[in-house]
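Example record

The entry below shows one chain as it appears in the dataset: sequence first, then structure tokens.
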Amino acid sequence: MASPPLPALLADAHGFSLQIISLVGELWTGDVREVTLPGSEGRFGVMAQHAPLLGTLREGMVSVYPVEPEPPLHVYVSGGYVEVQPGRVIVLADLALRSDDLDQARVQAAGDAARSPMAVDFTDDGYARLHAELMHQRTLQLRGLPWK
């Protein structure tokens, strides 16, 4: 027995155009099958032929699922607005960073912190010896043994 035909509205619902724009310019554009957004009242998803909507976004991740079989893209937004039309979605973000850029920024910040003067001071031999001695004395104190 053949399955019933899909309604015309769903039969053409293969994807839609998505644009993510921040204050510094367009961050990403392309055809997607789904996008999930951090709405001000909670996360929500948009698929093709979605009813028109104008909403506010809170800080969070926008997850983009391209039409082509490829991994999803995640974009951090600090807030903004979204306009949804049946064939197009526009995200207007205050600040937007792709997840790979965000990961690179975290790596850079960690490297900078590791090379900071404070980190260098806390990793020299004298500090390590002092820290080991203090830990030894604290262990003796917790066990009720006299300090040496």
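Notes for this example: The longest strand covers residues 25-39. Strands lie at 16-22, 25-39, 42-47, 53-57, 60-66, 73-77, 80-85, 88-93, 96-98.
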